[in-house]
Every structure is written in C-alpha cells, then in structure tokens.
C-alpha cells in the first residue's frame, strides 16, 4: 500500500468524485481509478458505494480513512523529525494551548524562545483541554499547555492561577471581598462547554461546596463568559484576571475554597520521543518558568 495512493484515497474520500479528486491531485482520472481499484483489491472490500454517478464512502471506507489520515500524519511527523535532526537549530514545534493562554503567557514564551532560536518554526493550535489531548495522543501536536493535569502523559507544572467568582457590577454579592460557592448556589451560572478544563474544575468546586450549578449559557472562551456576566446573564468561576484585563462590567470576588485554583502545565506524549526542536522548546519552558508540581 503506497503512501501516495493513501493520500489520493483521502482526497477522493473528501470529494467523493473521481474527476474532482483527480483535478485536485493533478493526475489523470484513469490513474486515480486504477489506484482505487488496487487499494480495494488489497483490502478485499469496496470502499465506496456508487450512487448517481458519484462515490459515497461506505463503512469500510470510513475505517480506512481514519487509519489513512493517521498514517499520513505519522509519516509527515517522521519526515519533520528527520529534517529537524539534521539541523537542531531548525525544525517545527507543533504547540497546542488553551484559549485562555493566548493573551499573554504563550506569546511571551514564544517571544523569549525565538530570541534564542530564531530559525525554529511553530505550528500553533488553540482549543479546549479535551481537544488538545486528542491531538497530542493522535500525533497532530508535540506539546500542549493545558489544565488540569492529564493522565497518561508526561507533565511539568508551570504555574498556578487562583480562581474567583465574577459577578455583574451592582450584584447583591458584588461588595463581598471573599465568598464561598455555596453563597452563590441559587445564582444562574455562565460556564465553558463540557470538555473544557475550567468547566471540570468548576463542577468539582461546586460539588465540594454542596451545590449543583444551573448553567444558563455555555461559552467557548473565558472573555465571552466575563462579557455575559457583565451583561447580567449570571455569575461565573474564572481565573483572577491579570492587571488591565478585567471586564469593566464585572466584579471579581476571591473564593474562600483552598482548592479554587487551576494548575497550568506542559504535557507531552509518554510513548514517543519529542522531535529535537520540540524537545529544545520544552526544556526552555521548563527552565524559564516557575516549577509547580
């Protein structure tokens, strides 16, 4: 099974049209048809159903598509690692990080690292914690800055953020300097969607306080949560904002629970070595960031 033919199959599966796929690949239609026939002969089953002169990926084809994409990703990763090994001062670092780290922490890390290694390239991905870990496990990224600490990965704690309760200005709790989540048990909550690390931590904190939050809106970014709090939609558990980054229409109240914090850290696969450029970046992050286990 040739890698080129697997790549052709992926394009054909995405277009579901031989003529369109051949044009996109820059090969002739008969060449693509013969390659598909060889592939189907090798796996022993048809990979497409023929419907109204078009191709429709069937259940067998969906299985092969999943593995073909994984194989192509692994081969691309291998090529990148080999290229990086030939010159340790270059190469590609595929870094994933939480949306909330895009404002200052990650850009500052990249700025400082690039002063030491200006020729190393980066491929950057933002997402929720579960998305980052799926990409890490699947080989789409090398490193992830995430929270909470994931199981099954190498990990180095970087720093801890205190969590607080954001409430609208003028809210009945706004004058409080410290609060427990039990005091807000009857309030509507704005939260991140399930799968986000902060949502998991919020649910754990609420369970610890003996309340079940009534979530009225699920956002995908913390600034959206804070904006909705300011608009009066509810309250939200968020990290204590950095200076100059607070939502003007919200008040931030310290949470009394000692566990009201989230640890940010660097995660990487436990079952495969990092490419040299990624290893260099990881060591830089560990060396220059406060160690929190």
Automatic annotation (TrEMBL):
Keyword Amino-acid biosynthesis part of the UniProt annotation: no
InterPro entries: LysR_HTH_N, LysR_subst-bd, WH-like_DNA-bd_sf, WH_DNA-bd_sf
UniProtKB keywords: Activator, DNA-binding, Transcription, Transcription regulation
Bilayer-crossing regions: none
Domain HTH lysR-type: 1-58
GO cellular component, as recorded: protein-DNA complex
Pfam assignment, any one: HTH_1
GO molecular function: DNA binding; DNA-binding transcription factor activity
The protein's role, per its UniProt record: Required for the induction the katG gene for catalase. Involved in the response to hydrogen peroxide.
Similarity annotation: Belongs to the LysR transcriptional regulatory family.
Name the record gives this protein: Probable hydrogen peroxide-inducible genes activator
